């Protein structure tokens, strides 16, 4: 693990700068936690980040010794817990915002920092960080020889999850003859061997996934109903002699976090006639809406609430709607919604 040597390098650089002059030097050692309070994994991920910071505190005592420079301030903390972090740009935004807030002019990255899981992110992150007016470098520490990301990413939960999903999908398209069950198992095994190592950015939970699938089974009929209603509304608009459309691009700050939840909401919006998800960045969904009623439904938050129910449980579904949080053209309500408690995934 290179984080130990990265901390030692950062401490050495800060201590050298402090001893070379009378100016005050601040060293911030932070962990980036890409999670939110409604994410069922929040407690685990934030706990891991805090455990890492506890170890860093011990390393600091070792590296600074008994007589640290009086003009050297050291702070530790977790950043990113109040954002949805997906792309390298999102991580860079969180780091740059913290750097600006703390007047930091230099960022040192751990060479093994890879929050994307199996997706390499360090180099893209360095490029994104260059947007800021700060110096960016990767700690010049030796990286231990490791197996490839694909080899070490394969785990039993991934194999079981991909096999189960592939097998069920195959059977869904089959005629349920005895041969179909056999060929389905062979096909699912091949798919699992090829895709399991790269299928997830984090380890799937074999206890949470069945609950999410059960809630998804409730969500699908609901989505189909919403699509049918929206089809009738758009048909009325198209057939009306005056063609009463009111196209407009709107931005929705959605209270969903995690790749699967964000993708599900974005696709659900697109599948519903009258709205089209154009792009997603951070928590902002850029959406083209065809009519005022489509925007009313969008900011009413029914789809967002349903997606939260699928991925986070009943308690998360009770979060205020976008309109109640102060979004939408006709919203007079200013939201004061803090971070919700971690929802029980039931």
TrEMBL record:
Q: Just give the chief location class.
A: membrane
Membrane topology category: Multi-pass membrane protein
- Parts of the chain that traverse the membrane: 156-173, 179-200
Any Gene Ontology CC annotation: plasma membrane
Q: Which residues form a coiled coil?
A: none
Q: Which domain of life is it from?
A: Archaea
Pfam families, per the entry: MNHE
GO terms, molecular function: monoatomic cation transmembrane transporter activity
> Region labeled Disordered — which residues?
321-346
Q: Where in the cell is it found?
A: Cell membrane
InterPro entries per the record? Cation_antiport_E
The entry's keywords: Cell membrane, Membrane, Transmembrane, Transmembrane helix
Regions of biased composition (Acidic residues) lie at 331-346
Q: PANTHER family recorded for this chain?
A: NA(+)/H(+) ANTIPORTER SUBUNIT E1 (PTHR34584), NA(+)_H(+) ANTIPORTER SUBUNIT E1 (PTHR34584:SF1)
What is the protein name given in its UniProt record?
A: Monovalent cation/H+ antiporter subunit E
Q: Which organism is it from?
A: Haloarcula terrestris
């Amino acid at each position: 693990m290179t984080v130990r040597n990265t901390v030692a390098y950062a401490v050495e650089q800060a201590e050298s700068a402090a001893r070379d002059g009378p100016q005050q030097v601040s060293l911030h050692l932070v962990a980036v936690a890409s999670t939110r309070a409604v994410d069922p994994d929040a407690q685990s991920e934030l706990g891991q980040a805090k455990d890492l910071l506890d170890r860093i505190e011990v390393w600091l005592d070792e590296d600074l010794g008994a007589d640290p420079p009086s003009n050297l301030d050291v702070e530790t903390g977790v950043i990113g817990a109040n954002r949805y972090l997906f792309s390298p740009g999102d991580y860079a935004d969180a780091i740059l915002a913290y750097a600006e807030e703390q007047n930091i002019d230099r960022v040192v990255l751990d060479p093994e920092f890879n929050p994307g899981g199996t997706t390499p992110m360090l180099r893209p992150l360095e490029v994104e960080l260059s947007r800021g007016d700060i110096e960016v470098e990767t700690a010049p520490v030796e990286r231990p020889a490791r197996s490839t990301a694909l080899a070490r990413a394969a785990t039993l939960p991934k194999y079981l999850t991909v096999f189960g999903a592939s097998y069920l999908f195959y059977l869904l398209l089959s005629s349920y003859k005895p041969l179909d069950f056999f060929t389905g198992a062979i096909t699912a095994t091949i798919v699992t061997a090829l895709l399991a190592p790269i299928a997830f950015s984090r380890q799937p939970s074999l206890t949470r996934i069945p609950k999410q699938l059960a809630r998804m089974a409730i969500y699908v009929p609901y989505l189909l109903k919403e699509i049918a209603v929206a089809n009738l509304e758009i048909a009325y608009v198209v057939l009306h002699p005056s063609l009463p459309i009111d196209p407009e691009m709107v931005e929705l700050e959605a209270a969903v976090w995690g790749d699967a939840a964000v993708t599900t909401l974005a696709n659900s919006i697109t599948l519903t006639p009258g709205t089209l998800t154009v792009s997603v960045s951070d928590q902002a969904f850029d959406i083209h809406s065809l009519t005022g009623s489509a925007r009313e439904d969008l900011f009413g938050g029914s789809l967002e609430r349903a997606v939260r129910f699928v991925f986070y449980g009943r308690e998360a579904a009770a979060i205020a709607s976008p309109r109640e949080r102060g979004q939408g053209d006709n919203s007079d309500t200013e939201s004061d919604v803090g971070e919700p408690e971690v929802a029980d995934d039931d």
